[in-house]
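Dissemination and training. As part of the outreach component of the grant, students in the summer workshop were shown how a complex can be specified as a set of sequence lines and then modelled as a single object. The example used during the hands-on session is reproduced here so that future cohorts can follow it. Participants entered these lines:
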Amino acid sequence: MNLTKKSLYPVTLDGFDEKLKREEIKAYFHNTFDIFEKIFEVLKNDDVFYQQSEITRHPMIFYFGHTATFFINKLILMKIIEKRINPNFESIFAIGVDEMTWDDTDSENYSWPKVQEVREYRDKVRALVDNLIDTVPLTLPIKEDSPMWIILMGIEHERIHIETSLVLHRQMPLEFIKDDTYFTVETSSNKMIKNEMITIPQTKIILGVDKQKHNMYAWDNEYGNYEDEVGEFKTSKYLVSNREFVEFVEAGGYEEKSYWSEEGQKFLEITNAKHPPFWVKENNLFKYRTLTKVIDMPWNFPVDVNALEAEAFCNYKSKKENVSYTLPSEVEHKAICKYANLKEILDLSEAEANQNLNTFSSCDIDTHSFNGIYDVVGNVWQWSRTPIFGFDGFEPHVAYDDFSTPTFDDKHALINGSSWASSGNLIMNDSRYAFRRHFFQHAGFRYVISTNKDKKDMDIYESDALVSQYCEFQYGDNHFGVENFALACAKIASKYSINTTKALDLGCATGRATFELAKTFDSVEGIDFSVRFVQVGTNLQEKGVVTFQSPDEAELFTNKKVTIEELGYENLKDKVSFWQGDACNLKPNFHSYDMILATNLIDRLYQPRLFLDTVDQRLNDDGILILTSPYTWQESSTKKEFWLGGYKDENGNDVKTIDTLKTILSEKFELVHTQDLEFVIKETKRKYQHTVSEVSVWKKK
Amino acid sequence: MNLTKKSLYPVTLDGFDEKLKREEIKAYFHNTFDIFEKIFEVLKNDDVFYQQSEITRHPMIFYFGHTATFFINKLILMKIIEKRINPNFESIFAIGVDEMTWDDTDSENYSWPKVQEVREYRDKVRALVDNLIDTVPLTLPIKEDSPMWIILMGIEHERIHIETSLVLHRQMPLEFIKDDTYFTVETSSNKMIKNEMITIPQTKIILGVDKQKHNMYAWDNEYGNYEDEVGEFKTSKYLVSNREFVEFVEAGGYEEKSYWSEEGQKFLEITNAKHPPFWVKENNLFKYRTLTKVIDMPWNFPVDVNALEAEAFCNYKSKKENVSYTLPSEVEHKAICKYANLKEILDLSEAEANQNLNTFSSCDIDTHSFNGIYDVVGNVWQWSRTPIFGFDGFEPHVAYDDFSTPTFDDKHALINGSSWASSGNLIMNDSRYAFRRHFFQHAGFRYVISTNKDKKDMDIYESDALVSQYCEFQYGDNHFGVENFALACAKIASKYSINTTKALDLGCATGRATFELAKTFDSVEGIDFSVRFVQVGTNLQEKGVVTFQSPDEAELFTNKKVTIEELGYENLKDKVSFWQGDACNLKPNFHSYDMILATNLIDRLYQPRLFLDTVDQRLNDDGILILTSPYTWQESSTKKEFWLGGYKDENGNDVKTIDTLKTILSEKFELVHTQDLEFVIKETKRKYQHTVSEVSVWKKK
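and obtained this result:
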C-alpha cells in the first residue's frame, strides 16, 4: 500500500471514455479500500480488534469485515454476482451499525473470526470488485440502475466508515493504540481569537440534486426538490473553539439542568459527562485526545461535542447575554455557503479547507476563511437544528432502501459542512448526513441568531407508499369479504404447530402476523429484509401505534391510526422482537424454532433454494414450516435460473413451483396440508390486487 | 432548399458533446424534411395532390401532410408538447398508410385542405421541431425514453415515406409528372450478363440489436435475440435483371396459373397483370418507366416486381431446370452478407452501393460487387420468403406500438438489402422492413437453391402479453363471481339508451362490448388508440375467432380459442366495424351516435378534457354518454396538470374526479345514473386486478 497516497476525490459519472472511467473508478476504489485498512493500523495488535470502543457498538473486527461484505451483499442482491465468497462473514458482518432495535449488536451472539481470516477475505473482495470494475457493462453517464452504481455505492459506503471508524478509534483507550507518522496532527497557536456575529442577508435556498443532471454519485436523500426562503440572520464568524467552550464548562454548564433538553438530561444521566469527550482531565488540567495521542489543549481547535452539548452551550450563552442563540438550520447553513461563495468542492484546493484527510486532526478555527466566515466546510462537522427528512420526490435506491428512511424519525439531526476525516461524497456540496443527537463525530458547532421558522414539520404518517400499502394490508380494512391475511396465516400456524415455544415470522413486513402468532407462541421473532417495514412493527411495540396513509383516489389519502389497545396486543409486546435479516443468508443465531412462517416470501428471494435447502436446521424436532405464495416469479426479484417454477424445462414440459418445492423439501419434510388462501391489497379506493396464495404446511421429519 | 444536398446518414446516439449532437440532429432533420418536400416537386401542379396513384391509397395530399402530423401526434402522445398546431390536420392526416381494415382510406370521408395550407403547416412543424431539437433535455447516449428519441422516430418515419412516396410517384401517370434534373437516371449497357450460382457455406447467424449497446436509432422489430444455423446453400450472383425476367414473361409466365400461389392468382385476377408494373408496352416493345419518364428498356437493370411475381419466376425456373429455386430467407440473406464481408453501412462509400438517393433509378446489376456477389445491398430491395416476426425480447415502443405488431401476421414478407431510394435507418445493416407480398416497392429479387428449413412457425396465439390479458378479460372466464365487464356495460347501455340506431364503443380494446352492443344497436363502431387491440375485434369479425394465451404461473400459459359461434355473434358481424383513433382528437367523420360508451378510458387519455369538451357534438338528440372509470390517474398516461381529480387544489382541498366530471359535463348533459361496477383482470392463475369502477350515465340536454 502506498502510504503517501492522498485521498482521491470521487469520480464523475459522465465522461468520454469508458476504459478511462473504469481506471478512474478502480483507482478510487483502491484508494478507499487502502485508507480504510490503513486506519486499522492504529490498533496496537490483533487482540484489540475484539474490543469495543463503546458498549453500544460492535467490536472493531465487525467494522473491519463490514465494509467488504457490504460490496458482496449488495452485488448479490442486485444479481450482479451469484456466488458468495463467505456466507458466514456476509451474514455476521452484515448489519449493526446504527443503534436500532433490529440491529443485533450483542456480541455474545457471534463467534468472531480471526483478523487474518478477515484480511484474506478483504483481499478476495478486492480482487472480485477489481474484476467487476473491468468487466461490468458500462455506458456513460453511469446511472442509478447501472451495475457500476453498486460498486460506487460500496466505495462511498466505505468512505463513511473511514469517517466513523476514525471516531471509534479515537475513542479507544490509548493502551490499545499505536502511533504512526501517517496520522499527522496540527498544532494550535496561543492567539486569542474573539468570535463575532456576521449578518447573512435574506435569500432563497433551493436544495436537492436532479437525477438527470447530477454528475456525481449521490445518496437517495440528496435527490429531489426543496425550496425555502431564509430571512436575514446572524452567524458566528468562527466555529466554537475549545477556549470558547471552556467558559461554559467552568461556569458549571454540565451541572445546570435548565440548559439541557430532556434528551440532553438523559445523556448526562447515562454518561455522567462533565466536559467534551475528547478532553482529558490530568492533574486538574484539560488535555486533548487526538486520534493516537494526548496533547496539550489546543485552545483554538474547534470543540468536539454532540448536538446535545452544543444546544446546552447555546442556551447558556443565550441566558448570559439575553439574546437567543441556536444552532443553524440546514437552509441557514446553505445561506452561509452562498454568502461565502463556496466553490464546487472538486475545484477546492487542499489549502482552502481542512477535509479529505489532508491531515488527521482539527486545526485552528482561524485558518480557513470563506469570504470572512471560517470553516464553512471542513475542520469539524457543524451540528444543525434540523432533523433529516426526504425532499419532495424522495425515493430509496432499490439496492439500499434503508440508507435514509430509518433516520427520517425526528431523532437524527443533520450535520452541516464536513470534517478533516470526511472524504468522498461526504464532502460534496449537496451531500446530507445525519446522526442521533447524542452521537459523537468529529463534530462541533457554530451558533446563529435567527428568527427563521423551520418549515418542515415531521410527518408522523408513514408516507412511504409501499410501506403504507402493507400497513393497510396488515392493519387496515377487509375488502371483498376476504379475511385479513396475517390473521388467517396465524390461525393456520396455530392449528398445525405441535410445540409452541418459539416461532419465526420470516418476511414479516409490517409485523401483524408476528404479533398475532404471539397469542400462540411464547416468543416470536419477526425478520424482514427491509428496515422500512421492520420499523412499523417496532413502532407498534415501542410506541403502541401504527400510523399510515390509506390511498383513496390517485394522490389523495386518508390518514389512519391503529393502536396496540385496539389490536389487543398490549400483553404481547414483550413476546415479540423484530430484526433485519436476509432469508437467503440468515445469521446463525436465528434457530430452534417450533414453527417458521414464510408468507409471500419465496418468489421474492434472489436465490430461494439458499433458504429452502437449510431451513430444516433452524427448526426443532416436530418443527413446522409454513409457506404461502402466489408463485409470481419475476426477473426483478429472482434471476430466471433460480425460479422454482413458472417456466418450461429443456424438454418443453411445464415446471410448476409446488412440484419443485416437493422435490426440494421432501427429504427432510412431510407435506401435511395444502390449501388456497386469498388476500387483497388495496392500491386505491377502487383498485385492488386480489391474489390466491397457495399455503403448504411441512412437518420436519 | 439546397438541391445539391446529398442525403445524410443517420446520427449516432452517443457522442461527447450535446450541443454538437443537437446540431447533427437538426441537420439530419432538415435534410429529411427537405428531401421529402423535394420529391413532391415531381407532381406537375397542386391539382395532382388530390389524385391517387392506386385506388387503395389516399391521394398525394395525405402523404404530404402525414409525415409532418406524425411528429405532432407522437410529441403530444409522449407529452413533450401540449398544444396541437392544427387538430383537424392532425386527425385527417393521422392514419391510413397500410391496407388495414381499420385504416379509413375512403376519401369521401375527408375534405382535404389546400396544398398551400399544408405547405404552411409543414413550415410550422419544422419550426416547432427545430425548437425542440434545441431545447429538449438531452443526455448522451440518447435512449428510447428520451424526448429526442421521438424526434428521431419522426425523422426515420419520414425517411420511410421518402422511399414509399417515390414508388407512388413513379406509379402516377406521366401526364401528372414533371421532370427535374435533380432526379437523375442511370443508363444501362448492352452487355450480356449471365447469372450464375455461388455457394454460401454453412454458418451461424445471430440477429437482433442490443438495446444497451446499439448506437443508432432502431425500430422495435430490430431489437432482441434470434439465432439460426444456416446450412450450405447457393445464391444467384446477380439480382434478376429485366433481361433474365423477360424470358418468363415471353414464356407466358403470367398466364400459367401453376407458377402462382393462391395469393398470386388472386393478384392476377384483380390486376390482370401481364408483365412487371414499371414495364410499359409501346408498339409491342417493352419500355421502362423511371420516376419521371419512360425510357428504352434498360435490360441490365434489376426487374421491379412484387413477391408474388418473384415467387412465380422461381417456380417457372425450377420447373424448367428441374432444380428447386426459391427466394432466400432472412437468415440466408444475412449469410450472404457475411460471405460478402459487408461493412457497416456508415463506412460504405457512395461508389460501393446504389442506395441513399445517390441517384433516382436502378443501375446495372453488375455495377456493385461485394466479394463477387452483386447488390448484396442497394439497387432494389430483394424479396425474402420470410414473414416478418418479432425476435425474442420484442417489445413495441410505447410511442408507436403499432409500427410492427400489425405486420406480424404471416402476410408481410421481409425485404432484404435496400434500394436506390432507401436512406436513414432503411439502409442500416440491422434494419428490418416488410411489406404485403402484392405491394410494389423498388424491389426485385435474387434466387437461391436451398434445403434450409425455416425455423419460425408463426404463432397463431396472441403472444402480446397486454393484448392477451385483455382477451382474457373480455373473452375469458369470470373470477370471484364478478360478471364479465363488457357484457355488464352493454346491459347498462341498453337499459339507458333512448334511440338505438348507432353506437360508439370508444376505447373498445379487443372489441367484446362492440359486438355485444350490436345486439341492441343497428350499427356499432369500435375505436381504440392501439391497433394491437383493434386487430382482435377485426379478427373475430373476419376470421370468426379470438385466440390468446391465458397466463398460469409466471411464464406458463394455456392457449385459448373462442369462436364467433360460441359467442353467438355470427349475425352481428356486419353490424360492427373497428377503427384506429385517438379519443382526444377524433376524426370528424365519427358522429351521429345515439350512445357513446367509454369504458376505463378517461384516466388513460393524455388530455381528457379534449374528449369531454366536445363529445356532445358527436351525439344525436337524446344521446347517451356512459363513462366507467376507477379514476386511477397516473403521470405515465396523463400529465398531472390534466388530471380531472385525485389531487389537492391550491387551497389544500381534495379534488375528486366525479365532481370535475359534473362541472365539465353539466352544461350539456344531465347526470341520470351512477353506480359501482366491479371488474377483474387476470394477471396469472393466482393474481388478479380487482377493480371497482364508477359508472356514470349522462343524457344530452
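The mean pLDDT of chain A is 92. Students were then asked to discuss how this feature might be tested experimentally.
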